[in-house]
Structures are given as structure tokens and as C-alpha cells.
Design goal:
Layout: E1 2-7, H1 12-20, E2 27-33, H2 39-46, E3 51-53, H3 62-73, E4 80-83, H4 92-97, E5 102-106, H5 118-125, E6 129-136, E7 146-153, H6 160-183, E8 187-190, E9 193-196
Helix pairs in contact: 1-6
The structure holds 5-O-phosphono-beta-D-ribofuranosylamine.
Protein name: Phosphoribosylglycinamide formyltransferase
InterPro entries: Formyl_transf_N, Formyl_transf_N_sf, GART, GART_AS
Organism: Endozoicomonas euniceicola
Length: about 200
């Protein structure tokens, strides 16, 4: 299956997807960034994938930017659009267009800690576990159907950096896995429910 990846920054998540591509059922056919200097674009080029910069600052509003993005993505015929550290909220038109085919990874055990700074809030609240969630994107921020979650214990000595490092290591395992399951037809999403077919893992 064909996937397009959207990002805004470093792109370590994209790198994990690139690294697992040879043993997966997906092909990354394009990478888009709203930040022209995102290192993720360089990672794409290093892997011989076309990286497109579409700077949101050149557009008058979100809707105009998203429409342009849609026009650039559509000719690539993606089966799935995969958000990997894409730091802009997508308009309802964009989300509807790719309904059931648009996924994200968010660094918390949703529905806890939606939005930004999840590590800070986890530590501030004294949570004993933290983690990450792969989910379908819906109109409401960080609220679509959950596909897969991974959790880990928070240690008393943890800082934002140590926690982020461990969560990211997990993200780099579960995101390629979830995308592979979707693309192989093993994972089926309908309305707000996601299930695995009955093949052994
Ligand atoms: C990841 O932690 C992901 O959960 C969040 O953004 C981060 C992206 O990191 N949505 P990177 O740019 O892929 O390194």
C-alpha cells in the first residue's frame, strides 16, 4: 500500500517507518513538511523519497494551506496518510477527505494528556505510567479511534528528557507495526472501533 507521511520536525518517527519499510506492506511515496527546514525532509531524501516543503506561512489561512496540501498529496494516490510529528491542526475538510485513512501517533495514553507537553503534565501530575497511542484522526484533537497503545512505568528520577527518550523508543516500534497491520489488511477500522483479524500475531 502507498503511504504519505506528514511531519514538521526532526523526523525520527519517519526514520523508523523508513527502516521497517523493507519488511512491511507499505511504501512511502512522499513526505510533506510545513516547515521547510525540517530535518525529516533530509531523512526522506537520504532514503530516495521525494520530500516536499509546503510552508504554511505562505498561505492566508488554514483552509487555503490544507487545500493546497490536498492538491499536492492526491496525485500520489495514497492509501493512508500518516502523521509523524506533524504540528499543525488539520482542517475538517482535510480530515473528512481522508476519513478512515488518516492516522497519528500521540505521546500519551489517550484519552489522558491530549495536546502538547504530555511529558511535562505526566510528571507534574505524578502519573505512575506514561506511553503512546496510535489512533485514527478525527475532527476533534487527539480523539479518533485508538488503534494501538504502549505504556511504560514512570520512574521517580525521570525527567522530561529521559521519559521522552523511552517513549520515543517505543513509538519507533509500534508505529511501523500499526501501519504495517493496516496496510496488510490485518487491522480493520470502522466507525470508532478497531480490531485485529483472527490471524495469529
Ligand atoms: C513523536 O513523539 C510523536 O509522538 C509526536 O511527535 C513526535 C515526533 O518526533 N506526534 P519526530 O519529529 O518524529 O522525531
Amino acid at each position: 500500500k502507498r503511504i504519505v507521511v506528514l511531519l514538521s520536525g526532526n523526523g525520527s518517527t519517519l526514520q523508523a517507518l523508513i527502516d521497517q519499510q523493507p519488511v512491511s506492506h507499505y511504501e512511502i511515496v512522499g513526505v510533506f513538511s510545513n516547515c521547510p527546514d525540517a530535518y525529516g525532509l533530509q531523512r526522506a531524501r537520504n532514503a530516495h523519497i521525494t520530500g516536499h516543503a509546503v510552508d504554511h506561512k505562505n498561505f492566508p489561512n488554514r483552509s487555503a494551506f490544507d487545500q493546497h496540501l490536498l492538491q499536492k498529496i492526491n496525485p500520489l494516490n495514497p492509501d493512508y496518510v500518516v502523521l509523524a510529528g506533524y504540528m499543525r491542526i488539520l482542517s475538517s475538510e482535510f480530515v473528512q477527505h481522508f476519513s478512515g485513512r488518516l492516522i497519528n501517533i500521540h505521546p500519551s495514553l489517550l484519552p489522558k494528556h491530549k495536546g502538547l507537553n504530555t511529558y511535562q503534565s505526566t510528571l507534574a501530575l505524578g502519573d505512575r505510567e506514561h506511553g503512546t497511542t496510535v489512533h485514527f484522526v478525527s475532527d476533534e484533537l487527539d480523539s479518533g479511534a485508538i488503534i494501538l497503545q504502549a505504556s511504560l512505568p514512570v520512574h521517580p528520577v525521570d525527567t522530561v528528557q529521559t521519559l521522552e527518550q523511552r517513549v520515543k523508543a517505543m513509538e519507533h516500534k509500534i508505529y511501523p507495526l500499526a501501519v504495517d497491520w493496516l496496510c496488510s489488511g490485518r487491522l480493520i477500522g470502522k466507525d470508532s472501533v478497531v480490531w485485529l483479524d483472527n490471524h495469529p500475531l
